[in-house]
From TrEMBL:
It holds the Pfam family ABC_tran. InterPro entries: AAA+_ATPase, ABC_transporter-like_ATP-bd, ABC_transporter-like_CS, ACT-like_dom_sf, MetN_ABC, MetN_ABC_transporter-like, NIL_domain, P-loop_NTPase. GO terms for molecular function: ATP binding. SMART domains: AAA (SM00382), NIL (SM00930). This is ATP-binding cassette domain-containing protein. PROSITE patterns: ABC_TRANSPORTER_1 (PS00211), ABC_TRANSPORTER_2 (PS50893). Residues 335-358 are annotated as: Disordered. The keyword Calcium does not apply. Keywords: Amino-acid transport, ATP-binding, Cell membrane, Membrane, Nucleotide-binding, Translocase, Transport. Residues 2-247 form the ABC transporter domain.
Length: 358
C-alpha cells in the first residue's frame, strides 16, 4: 500500500547539508498497522512527511495505493491538483492535534470537506458520522478548548478520515497523552484499521505502542532503516534490536563458565513446557535469569534468558534441541565457543531509550 524506493532527503541549511533520509526502502502492506521507531533525529518525521509529499524528497520514489506520488507535479503546500487529490486519500494525525480553536469540533472535521467542495448538508452529515465513529457524537458543538487531550486527538483522527483515506499517517499521535488515554486512542486506531481496512503508518517512541497495535515495525537510525519485518518475524530474528527492546530480558550469568541463551517463544511454542522438557531430557539444571511474556497483536509471545551449566561445547546438543522446537535462539554468552569469545548481548546499548520515555 505504501512503497518507497531509495528515498533520500537532504536538507540544506546555512551552507550545511543534512541527510535526513539516506536511501529508505519501506514496504507497508495493505491493511496493516506499521510502526516506525528510532531515536530523536533518526528521520522518522521526515519519512512520514515525504510519504505524503508535504516534503519533497531529494531522490527516490513514493508509491501510495498504486500511484507514484513523486511523479505528480507540484511542491509542498502549493501542490498541483493531481497531487492534492491523491493526498486527500492519505489522512494525517499530529502529535499536537492542530485543531482550530475558533471552530467547533464539527467545523474542524468539516474543514477538509470544505476544501473537497462538499455542500453544507453533505459536510454536516459526514462530520457527524465521523464524530460518531470516534465516540464523540455528543461533542459536535463544543470548541476544542473544552475537550481533554484524548478527545482532541479523536477529533484529529475524525478530521483525518474526512477524505475517506486508504492510508493514515500518524506522527507520535499519542505522545502528548497519558498512558490510559494513549491506550484508548490506540484501541481506536486498531478498530479503524479493522473496520475500515485502513492502512496505518505510525511513528512512536514507545515500545508499548508497537506491542499493542502494530503488525509490523521498522527501526530507523541515521536516515536508514536498519531492521524491518512483521513483529513475529522480528521476535524470531536472533540479534534483533527491536525484539530486544520489545522484550528486554535482563539477568547476569552466575559465572563466566556458563552458557547463556535468549529464547523467543511465539505462537504454539509459547504454551509448551519446553524448559522442563529440556531439563528432563538432558538432566541439566537450568536457571532462568529473566523472562517477559506478553500478547502481541493477539498472539502470545515471550522471551526468556536461561543459563546452562558449563561451556558452549557441552551445550551444543541442548541448544540444538531448543532450535528444533521452533524457538528463536540467541546465544549471548558462550565460553569456549570457537570465534564466539566475548559474544554477549547484555551490554548492547538500548536503541530507543530516550529521555522522558516510559
Ligand atoms: N526542515 C529542516 N531543515 C533542516 N534539517 C532538518 C529539517 N527537518 C529535519 N531536519 C533534520 O533531519 C534529521 C531528521 O529529522 P526528523 O525530524 O525526521 O527526525 P525524527 O526521527 O522525527 O526525530 P524526533 O524523534 O525528535 O521527532 C535531523 O537531523 C533534523 O535536524
Ligand atoms: Mg519526529
Amino acid at each position: 500500500m505504501i512503497t518507497t524506493k531509495d528515498l533520500t532527503k537532504v536538507y540544506r541549511s546555512r551552507g550545511r547539508e543534512i541527510t535526513a533520509l539516506d536511501g529508505v526502502d519501506l514496504h507497508v502492506r495493505e491493511g496493516e498497522v506499521y510502526g516506525v521507531l528510532g531515536r530523536s533525529g533518526a528521520g522518522k518525521s521526515t519519512l512520514i512527511r515525504c510519504v505524503n509529499l508535504l516534503e519533497r524528497p531529494t531522490a527516490g520514489t513514493v508509491i501510495v495505493d498504486g500511484r507514484e506520488l513523486t511523479a505528480l507535479a507540484g511542491r509542498g503546500p502549493r501542490a498541483g491538483g493531481e497531487l492534492r487529490r491523491a493526498r486527500t486519500r492519505i489522512g494525517m494525525v499530529f502529535q499536537h492535534f492542530n485543531l482550530l480553536s475558533s471552530r467547533t469540533v464539527q467545523d474542524n472535521v468539516e474543514l477538509p470537506l470544505e476544501i473537497l467542495g462538499l455542500s453544507g448538508r453533505e459536510r454536516a452529515r459526514k462530520a457527524l458520522d465521523l464524530l460518531d465513529l470516534v465516540g464523540l457524537a455528543d461533542k459536535a458543538r463544543v470548541h476544542p478548548a473544552q475537550l481533554s487531550g484524548g478527545q482532541k486527538q479523536r477529533v484529529g483522527i475524525a478530521r483525518a478520515l474526512a477524505g475517506d483515506p486508504k492510508v493514515l499517517l500518524s506522527d507520535e499521535a499519542t505522545s502528548a497523552l497519558d498512558p490510559e488515554t494513549t491506550r484508548s486512542v490506540l484501541q481506536l486506531l486498531r478498530d479503524l484499521n479493522r473496520q475500515l481496512g485502513l492502512t496505518i503508518l505510525l511513528i512512536t517512541h514507545e515500545m508499548d505502542v508497537v506491542k499493542a497495535v502494530c503488525d509490523s515495525a521498522a527501526l530507523m537510525r541515521g536516515g536508514r532503516i536498519t531492521e524491518a519485518g512483521t513483529v513475529p518475524e522480528l521476535l524470531a530474528t536472533p540479534g534483533s534490536e527491536l525484539a530486544r527492546e520489545l522484550f528486554p530480558v535482563g539477568g547476569q550469568a552466575s559465572g563466566d563458565d556458563r552458557t547463556v541463551v535468549d529464547i523467543t517463544f511465539h505462537g504454539e511454542t509459547a504454551t509448551q513446557p519446553v524448559i522442563s522438557r529440556l531439563a528432563r531430557t538432558y538432566t541439566i539444571d537450568i536457571a532462568v535469569l529473566g523472562a517477559a511474556m506478553d500478547t502481541v497483536a493477539g498472539r502470545q509471545v515471550g522471551r526468556m534468558r536461561i543459563e546452562l551449566p558449563g561451556p558452549f561445547e557441552e551445550n551444543v546438543v541442548p541448544i540444538g534441541y531448543l532450535r528444533e522446537q521452533g524457538l528463536g535462539i540467541e546465544v549471548v554468552q558462550a565460553p569456549g565457543a570457537p570465534g564466539a569469545e566475548g559474544t554477549d548481548g547484555r551490554d548492547a546499548a538500548p536503541a530507543l531509550t530516550q529521555g522522558g520515555g516510559r
